Amino acid sequence: MTRLEQLKRHLHPGRVYRRADLAQWSRSVDRHARALVDEGVLQKLRNGLYYYPKASVFGRVPPDELDLVRTFLKEDDFLLTSPNAYNALGLGTTQLYNRRVVYNHKRHGQFTLGGMPFEFRRKPRFPKRLTEEFLLVDLLNNLSELAEDPAAVRERARAKAKELDAARLRRAARDYGKVATRKFFEQALSNAA
User: Minimal CB count within 10 Å: which of 9, 17, 51, 181?
Assistant: First the structure.
């Protein structure tokens, strides 16, 4: 059995690998990675980042976004979201965006991973999972970037704030909101009381 075949035995369909992951099973990692890409076993997503495509009846399945970001960042401490998540708040936002936002502690900037655009934003704090309160705060934080009528969205956000748990919304605004966002929710929640 050749060293390349030995390396292949360690790979699993649907997984994303860093060059360092492959190096533990190969002495000539760059040559072997190039050979596996040429064979179609691996797909190069970015320098040092590879994907072993999983096959389905419809063709190759793209990498799981969470696994892709986790491998790229080399950690689990991040929050993956999209401006499309705001549409679930019921505020009349209807635009669809081909953009994923990754709140994290390490990277900042635009990156294309596996042909998909990701915007990495380095933040000191972010929640472990998406909540309605966080989404509402995040919507107001990023309102200038959206293709929506800001005045209409603010008015609907003010009404939505009265429907949510006031203590959790205040905490989310305090922990994750910009100064203007915190002031907006202080005013909206004080008027509701």
Answer: 9
Contacts of 40 (CB under 8 A, 6+ apart): none
- Give CA separation, 56 vs 8, 59, 61, 91, in Å: 20, 5, 7, 37
C-beta separation of 152 from 136 below 8 A: no
Give the chain's mean pLDDT.
93
Sign (positive/negative) of CA torsion 59, 63, 65, 66?
positive
pLDDT tens-place string over residues 170-182? 999 999 999 999 9
Q: Is the pLDDT score of 192 beyond 70? A: no
Strands 100-104 and 116-122: parallel
For residues 85 and 78, the answer to whether their CB atoms sit within 8 Å is no
Helices (H), 3-88: 3-10, 19-23, 29-39, 65-73
> 98: which DSSP letter?
S
Q: Which uninterrupted H or E stretch holds 120? A: strand 116-122
pLDDT, tens digit (0-9, with 9 covering 90-100), for 112-129: 998 899 999 999 999 999
Kindly report the length of the chain. Answer: 193
Whether the CB-CB separation of 14 and 52 falls below 8 Å is answered with yes
Rounded percentage of the chain residues whose pLDDT exceeds 70:
98
